[in-house]
UniProtKB/TrEMBL annotation:
Membrane-traversing stretches: 24-42, 62-80, 92-114, 165-182, 203-224, 239-265, 341-359, 366-391, 397-416
InterPro entries noted in UniProt: Na-dicarboxylate_symporter, Na:dicarbo_symporter_sf
Bilayer topology term: Multi-pass membrane protein
Function: Responsible for the transport of dicarboxylates such as succinate, fumarate, and malate from the periplasm across the membrane.
PANTHER family linked to this entry: AEROBIC C4-DICARBOXYLATE TRANSPORT PROTEIN, PROTON/GLUTAMATE-ASPARTATE SYMPORTER
Pfam families: SDF
GO biological processes: L-aspartate transmembrane transport
Cross-referenced Gene3D superfamilies: Sodium:dicarboxylate symporter
Gene Ontology MF: a single term: malate:proton symporter activity
Organism: Pandoraea anhela
GO cellular component terms listed in the entry, alphabetical order: plasma membrane
Subcellular location: Cell membrane
Protein name in UniProt: C4-dicarboxylate transporter
Keywords: Cell membrane, Membrane, Symport, Transmembrane, Transmembrane helix, Transport
């Protein structure tokens, strides 16, 4: 019980800690467990829960585009030194390129060492490719020129209508620079945009109340449709992927965190609610709004958060990079396709480019993988049929790594730029209010 004096009146505040079942992460965890049980024991009914997960993601995506716009515009236009914006962008891109390269190499090495597909002896000619026809058609249209052209939306509002993060980021940066050039004249609009950002954050808070339902629906559908048996039959592949994920997070990212002056485990505990929502929905976008807000609370400057996080969701998909190399080598091994060292280097170089477009289309990493295999004739594209059923379970791990990687990237870039309040960071990660 706390008592304060305001304008001569005594005001009493009752401080009550939340009960365990009132915490969002507990509710989401329970929902995920119930979803798994329902999917296993009542698969038919569980598949009908799909709309719960889909509609929750639609609610989140409803806020993502305007939230990115408001945050990026306010962050950039509010900076007096435009050169600082350029520095942040360049540093972020350097960091993204280094980390995605490491992720790709780890996946490549692990698949070669553990050989998850060896011994399957699948003839690609016998595979029914109708199940992946939609993915390969989109992949065929994904050229480098097409990808670059896709960055520019047909109209300003088109980017928001499509919800394409890369297009929204492009429009936001262009608008921010234009607003900054207005000087003092643009201040009223800048304040309106700040209020808009806070409003959309409040929308996210409201939407998150139904996140347990979304996580339950998505998990029930996944287990009900693909079944636990899928996990057993692809055990070696899943083991290879999640071993890569473990090494990348708890070795590579742990070293990065240590060099940046904070604890990886404390950071994971700090964003545990977001990670559980991502686990339930298999979508890293579901955590984007709250991740941005939490990074600001950690002491990262708003302008850095507004630029690095949205950019990271396009250029720093570490988890997706791991799954693309692991799956590509798995398909080659399963179809008895011999890959020379040059084939694998070519695969790596192509993925360094194509992986940057994984967030620009629906079904991201899978479509990019299809496009990549199309550019490496040695690996049969038909082999994608082999991983279609297990891909959902792998994409969950990829989404988790993407969120963790982009959160850490923002802190690292903020510190590199001198835009990080280290005391606030340590206090927040230690569990104290900053």
């Amino acid at each position: 019980m706390e008592t304060t004096l305001e304008s001569g009146a005594v005001v009493t505040h009752a401080r009550r800690s939340k009960r365990w079942y009132q915490h969002l992460y507990v509710q989401v965890l329970i929902a995920v467990v119930i979803g798994i049980l329902m999917g296993h024991f009542w698969p038919g009914a569980a598949e009908q829960m799909k709309p719960l997960g889909d509609n929750f993601l639609k609610l989140i995506k409803l806020t993502v585009a305007p939230l990115i716009f408001c945050t990026v515009v306010h962050g950039i236009a509010g900076m007096k030194d435009l050169r600082a914006v350029g520095r942040v962008g360049v540093k972020a891109l350097i960091y993204f390129e280094v980390m995605t390269t490491i992720a790709l190499v780890i996946g490549l090495l692990a698949a070669n060492l553990l050989k998850p597909g060896v011994g399957m002896h699948v003839n690609p000619a016998t595979l029914d490719v109708s199940a992946i026809a939609g993915y390969t058609k989109v992949a065929h249209d994904q050229t480098i020129v097409g990808y670059l052209a896709h960055i520019i939306p047909a109209t300003v509002f088109g980017a928001f209508a499509e919800g394409d993060i890369l297009q929204v980021l492009f429009v936001s940066i262009l608008f921010a620079f234009a607003l900054q050039l207005l000087g003092d004249t643009g201040e009223p609009l800048l304040k309106v945009i700040e209020v808009g950002a806070n409003t959309f954050f409040n929308m996210v808070r409201i939407v998150m109340y139904v996140s347990p339902l979304g996580a339950f629906g998505a998990m029930a559908y996944t287990i009900g449709k693909y079944g636990v048996a899928t996990l057993a039959s692809y055990g070696q592949l899943l083991l290879t992927y999640y071993l890569c994920a473990f090494v990348f997070v708890f070795v590579i990212l742990a070293i990065v965190c240590r060099l940046a002056g904070f604890s990886l485990l404390r950071f994971l505990r700090y964003i545990k609610e977001e990670l559980l929502v991502v686990l339930g929905t298999s979508s890293s976008e579901s955590a984007l709004p709250r991740l941005m807000q939490k990074l600001e609370r950690l002491g990262c400057k708003k302008s850095v958060v507004g630029l690095v996080v949205p950019a990271g969701y396009t250029f720093n998909l570490d988890g997706s990079c791991i799954n693309m190399t692991v799956l590509a080598i798995f398909i080659a091994q399963a179809t008895d396709t011999e890959l020379t060292l040059w084939h694998q280097i070519t695969l790596l170089l192509i993925l360094l480019l194509t992986s940057k477009g994984a967030a620009s289309v629906s079904g991201g990493a899978f479509i990019v993988l299809a496009a990549t295999l199309g550019a490496v004739p040695a690996i049969p594209v038909a082999g994608l049929v082999l991983v279609l059923g297990v891909y959902r379970f792998i994409s969950e791990g990829g989404a988790l790594i993407n969120v963790i990687g982009n959160g850490i990237a923002t802190i690292v870039v903020a510190r590199w730029e001198g835009a990080l309040d280290r005391e606030k960071l340590q206090a927040a990660l230690a569990g104290h209010s900053a």
